[in-house]
Write a structure and sequence with these properties.
The chain has 673 residues and is mainly α. It is built from 26 helices and four strands.
Length: 673
């Protein structure tokens, strides 16, 4: 007998309704499948899409939380912010640093050329005698003020402070604007302090002149010039404050124009008042030029500080730096975003150990000028003038080489404020290599054609051939210390870029000053002004070596051996270029008479140095020489400032790109049936 199956979904045979009838086949009953109640199935991204109705759209309401894709126990990736230092290196359109360096370089070169024209005007109108010696003693005041208040002191203190304040403004926490709080807390006090110091210097001018140059033939003229130049303490301080704030805002146009305005003021005043006031007109031009430096930057600073809108408050997780309880020390010094806390911390930053260490370092570094003036006052009339003219021309390559460090210093400070130490290290190493190459390129040209260069620039009017020979000899000796000056200016930024006080730069510079004083006192008798210049070069080179050896926990931790190796390569290339250019300059000078031969010698020396220097660097495979990076299989790192040799050392041979692990996507299985 046939029996129907009870299992659902199977076929069965029904019994016949009457005897003899055929059996009737009953189709199985159609039942809907039971819905799945299991957990969601995780499918890889590479699976083909399922057919059927589309999955419901994800919720977009305020309570929606995206699924967690990180492995358990790992921290989520940091959210991108506008304060990433890579943005500073890439900039808008990928050329921030290139555009800023080009703009700063052009305006810095214009200011240096105007400074050269200023010295030419001074030499043409007043020559190199007792009057110019008196003015150059008073010129010590603006030289000190520019180093302390514009180039080193004010920038090293305020650029990190403004960088931290801008980083806090970018994060957009509630409370007063930290940039405005910093300005309110520091600018009025700085103005009052500088006004008091300037007034004290006006009163103490006779004692200062007696201490700087006790053997000066005409001290009264030097006192009058010193009182006129004392006003630059206030104007230079305000100009340095504006420049540091604008550079921290990544605005480089107005700060780069200050020396153009300054030298225009001095030249115009000498030409207008030189016939009536004599060399005092140059001192009056210093006062007028300082005022023009401030006026050139005030509109841009007003727009940045008062006109910038504060971004909307951030919605991400709060970091320790945001409330001043953790993170980098510079962040805590910048304030916690509240009015009273920000003011108190800004005052502490401006008046604490940081500003003391920076200012003492600047005073110690500029003491080389005091030693030169003191030792040169015992020599025949015109010695101080020869030192001044030689130094001004010889330092032009140094000014141009430090241009790149001036542009990248806010980037390094911002990177350290955000905790990107490795990016800061690569940037500093690259800057040291490029700055050394630029300054040695200029030093090679100066050594090769120093007499002809001085002849073309100064030998006219009251400046005689004897002055040319003395100035050229000093210039060649000064050029030997240009690399040391550049390294000191670049390395000291790494010590103070994090906004932390450190006394090691002061100790290193003190050792260099001691060497300058001792060697200068011993050499001034037998060698005269050349002995003073040699002592200067030796002392600054010693300070540069000590600063390079001291990098590490005190500053940005650079690779000292790698940097030293690259510096050695550039020195070898500079030596080769100097020898070739020296031979060509002598041949060109002998071929043509007078100033035409001197000009031809200068052109030949510059051309030969420009050709031989990179050719000598090529077999040495120096990082200063730009090369096309090796094409890698992976995506290029366009934000890294490292050269191709850095990546070759760190990466070794090319390796295939590792396979990309598909990211899991969470979906719910839906039944298409």
């Amino acid at each position: 007998m046939n029996q129907a199956s009870d299992a659902p979904g199977t076929t069965g045979t029904a019994p016949p309704s009457r005897p003899g009838a055929a059996p009737v086949t009953v189709p199985p009953p159609v039942t809907a499948p039971a819905p799945r109640t299991g957990p969601p199935v995780t499918l890889p991204r590479t699976e083909a899409p399922r057919t059927g109705p589309p999955a419901p759209a994800p919720r977009t309401g305020p309570d929606d939380t995206p699924p967690r894709t990180e492995a358990p126990g790992t921290a989520p990736a940091p959210r991108p912010t506008d304060s990433d230092p890579d943005d500073a290196e890439r900039g808008e359109g990928g050329g921030f640093l290139a555009r800023a360096a080009l703009l700063t370089g052009v305006l810095t070169a214009a200011g240096a050329l105007l400074g050269l024209l200023r010295d030419q005007t001074l030499a043409h109108l007043f020559g190199a005698d007792r009057d110019t010696d008196a003015f150059l003693v008073a010129w010590t005041v603006p030289e000190f003020a520019s180093t302390l208040l514009i180039e080193d002191g004010m920038a090293l203190v305020l650029v990190p402070a403004f960088s931290v304040a801008l980083a806090r403004r970018t994060r957009g926490r509630s409370g007063p604007d930290p940039v405005r709080a910093l300005v309110r807390a520091s600018l009025p006090r700085l103005g009052l302090a500088l006004s008091g110091i300037a007034l004290l210097l006006v009163v103490m001018a006779p004692a200062l002149v007696g201490a700087l140059a006790p053997g000066l033939p005409d001290p009264e003229l030097a006192v009058d010039c010193t009182r006129l130049t004392a006003t630059c303490l206030l104007s230079f301080g305000l100009a340095g404050y504006c420049g540091a704030a604008l550079r921290a805002h990544r605005s480089f146009l107005a700060p780069a124009t200050i020396y153009v305005a300054y030298n225009v003021g001095i030249i115009t005043t000498m030409l207008v008042l030189g016939g009536r006031w004599g060399v005092r007109s140059a001192a009056a031009g210093v006062a007028i030029g300082g005022l023009l430096m401030v006026l050139a930057q005030l509109p841009a600073l007003w727009v940045r500080v008062r006109g910038a809108a504060r971004p909307a408050p951030a919605t991400g997780p709060r970091r320790p730096e945001d409330d001043g309880t953790g993170g980098d020390r510079a962040v805590r010094l910048a304030g916690d975003g509240t009015g009273t806390g920000a003011d108190d911390r800004a005052v502490r930053l401006a008046g604490g150990a940081l500003i003391a260490s920076v200012l003492l370092f600047g005073v110690c570094r500029q003491s080389q000028v005091l030693i030169e003036r003191f030792l040169g006052s015992s020599l025949p009339a015109g010695a101080i003038s020869h030192l001044n003219y030689a130094q001004k021309v010889a330092q032009m390559p140094m000014v141009l080489s430090l241009m790149l460090c001036t542009v990248t210093f806010p980037v390094v400070a911002r990177a350290l404020a955000e905790g990107h130490t490795e990016k800061a290290r690569r940037r500093v190493e690259r800057d040291l290599t490029l700055a050394a190459a630029v300054v040695l390129l200029g030093a090679a040209a100066i050594v090769a054609c120093a007499p002809q260069l001085v002849h073309v620039l100064f030998q006219r009017g009251a400046f005689t051939a004897a002055d040319t020979a003395a100035t050229a000899g000093v210039m060649r000796v000064y050029a030997l210390g240009l690399l040391g000056h550049t390294l000191v200016g670049a390395l000291v930024r790494t010590y103070f870029s994090a906004g932390r006080p450190t006394w090691y730069p002061l100790a290193a510079m003190s050792a260099g000053i001691a060497a300058t004083a001792v060697l200068g006192a011993l050499a001034v008798g037998p060698f005269g002004v050349r002995g003073i210049a040699a002592a200067n070069a030796t002392g600054i080179t010693l300070a540069a070596v000590l600063l390079l050896c001291g990098t590490g926990p005190r500053s940005v931790p650079i690779h000292r051996r790698r940097v030293a190796a690259e510096l050695t390569k550039t020195l070898v290339a500079a030596g080769c270029a100097t020898g070739a250019a020296l031979l060509c300059a002598r041949w060109a000078d002998a071929a043509l008479p007078g100033v035409r031969g001197a000009a031809a010698a200068v052109a030949a020396a510059v051309l030969v140095v420009a050709v031989v220097f990179p050719l000598a660097l090529w077999p040495l495979r120096a990082d200063a020489l730009p090369r096309r990076p090796a094409r890698a299989s992976g995506p290029p790192d366009v934000t890294s400032p490292r050269s191709w040799t850095d990546r070759a050392r760190e990466g070794g041979r090319r390796t295939a790109r590792p396979p990309r692990t598909p990211r899991p996507v969470t979906r719910k299985r839906t039944d298409a049936r």
